[in-house]
Amino acid sequence: MNFLDTARSALRSLRANKLRSALTALGIIIGVAAVITMLAVGEGAKRQVAEKLKSLGSNMLVIYPGAVTSSGVRLGSGSRNTLTEGDARAIQDEVAGVLASAAGLRGTGQVVNGNLNWSTLIYGIGPEYQTAREWRVLRGRGLDDNDVRSSAKVALVGQTVAQMLFGGTDPTGETIRVKYVPFTIIGLLDAKGQNLSGQDQDDVILIPISTARGRILGQSQGRSRTVGHIYVKMVDGADMKLAETRVQALLRQRHRLQQDQDDDFNIRNLSEVVEAEQAASSVLSSLLAAVASVSLLVGGIGIMNIMLVSVTERIREIGIRLAVGARPRDILTQFLAEATILSLLGSLVGIALGVGGTLALAHFAGWEVVLQTEAIILAVASASVVGVFFGWYPARKASRLAPIEALRYE
Amino acid sequence: MPLIEVQDLARDYRVGEVTVPALRGVTLSIERGEFVAVMGPSGSGKSTFMNLLGCLDVPSGGRYLLDGEAVSGLGPDRLAGIRNRYLGFVFQNFNLLPRASAQENVELPLLYANIPAAERHRRARAKLEKVGLGERAHHRPAQLSGGQQQRVAIARALVNEPPLILADEPTGALDSHTSRELMALFQELNAGGITVVLVTHEPDIAAYAKRLLMFRDGRLIEDQQGQGARFKGQGTPGTPLPLEPCPLNL
């Protein structure tokens, strides 16, 4: 029998039992759809993490002052004023591979434009900050050394703040009041989206650190030049562990800490956080793929089950075919073709369902999904393998029937 | 050279521990163009003999030469090829594929002979017309009468132009009028040069044959030549042969 005749005859017997064929194919349909959807969701999760990594800035160390201990009560990270602008500069100058070391002060405050107001984060920073965070200005200009030296009343606004205070209009050149002090907006920051903990990074204004210290955030502890945090951006490919050790050693030396004293600062390695989340998301997507594969396997067992029933039901037919000259391998091919066609048709419907389901998830649930051609090919290939694999046993069983016994079977 | 030559052909069936001999060494030969009826009570081994002739079963002992070729000992693929090209089967219960049309049923042997589709259609159509069913080519078996179904089966047996037709009680499920028509068709085929071997337990039907083989207890006990040959043990006198002109358009 040639290929076309085999396919046609297989299709005919599948059509003869439409409901059963459809139910059998359903296993494969669900399996393929699940594989496609799960891989798309898993890939979407990975991509989301990668985007967050980008917005945080990679190769980043963040240093916070240590905790104050007052009569046994520890006040938490950042409660001491141990970090200074001098520390930031020293890191820049003395640690190898530092791209930018940016000191900053952080506070919150009410920002007002005319009759609109908004409570936002206020960062006091220097020009290195934008380099460290890889934060570009969309319109206008960034902060420069002059602004810091002269404690200029200028500000960069984040997308969210611009939206809240100016609607959609260009805020550059406008004046806003920050805690009653008028500032001129010199630039609009590019969008950064949410950070890993889900905070809106665009809900922020950046002002010169000198201005912030003198007029806006103040430094109640009185020691000047202290800072709230230092961002250290390393060059690409830098060994972050090594950089962390070196920064730690440098700061311990500058703070004159003895061997037995604890650090009076904390270093956070953002790469580690991101790596952990990446690992988690790839575990998640492997898990999803594994679950989907199991459903494909179950679909395959469904095929085997139905094919076995079908062989038993059609023993007479097999006998007739053998009597008129079908060779065992013709019978084998016929049943194998039925299993394969069933799983191929199931795959096609499964692709449609999987792609549709993925797009629906993206549209209605707002999930980040990435449909990949490779995933679709993988799903269909596994479905075919499953079809042939599980069709093989029943087909072989059919082909081994003795003609006379098959003909006599009631 | 005879078309069929068997020597000491035997077939045992194993039922659990016990070996039951169904055929205990049959030796005979059948020439081309013969019309042979095989008779015998049930359990006489006549059906086993037919299944062995038809290569549907494998003998436990003895030799079987079909057209000079030793059949015993061939593999399943070769046997399938022999069934396809040398033999046409007609069964008591027709054995048509219920979901296929008459035309498709007749095409089945051609499918396994790797004949292209157009040629298959043409040849199947021609055979259906030959058995008088040209009009009903697209009917399914369930839509045909018993006699018509058996003619479809005969068309299927003929479609690959085999030299030998094996019929196992072909009229067993048919009324006497239809049976007579069918036997006339077999006679016609035999007259055209095809060797026919048919199993029956009805003397009326056996009367159409030119040679009678009588089986009992797995052995051939009688072999009579001549039209209308009768086995003596049957005890019934020969009835006149119902050889009225058949209405078939052959």
Largest sheet of chain A: 6 strands, mixed, barrel
Strand order of the largest sheet of chain A: 4-5-10-7-9-8
The average pLDDT value of chain B, as a whole number, equals: 87
Shape of chain A: elongated
Give the distance, in angstroms, between the N- and C-terminal Cα atoms of chain B. Answer: 30 Å
Number of helical regions of chain B: 7
| Spans where pLDDT lies below 50 across 5 or more residues of chain B | 231-250
Kindly describe this structure.
The complex is a heterodimer of chains A (410) and B (250). Chain A is an alpha+beta fold and 410 residues long. Helix content of chain A is 56%, strand content 18%. Chain A has two domains: 183 residues, no CATH class; 183 residues, no CATH class. Chain A contains 13 helices and twelve strands. In chain A, the strands form two sheets. Chain A has a six-stranded mixed β-barrel with strand order 4-5-10-7-9-8. In chain A, a hairpin with a 2-residue loop joins β2 and β3. The radius of gyration of chain A is 34 Å and the shape is elongated. The model of chain A has no long low-confidence stretch (mean pLDDT 84). Chain B has a single domain, classed as 3-Layer(aba) Sandwich (Rossmann fold). In chain B, the strands form two sheets. Chain B has a six-stranded mixed beta sheet, sandwiched between helices. In chain B, strands 2-1-4-5 form a four-stranded antiparallel beta sheet, with helices on one face. In chain B, α3 crosses α4, α3 runs parallel beside α5 and α4 packs across α5. Chain B is globular and about 50 Å long. The two termini of chain B are 30 Å apart. The interface between A and B is medium-sized, with 26 and 28 residues.
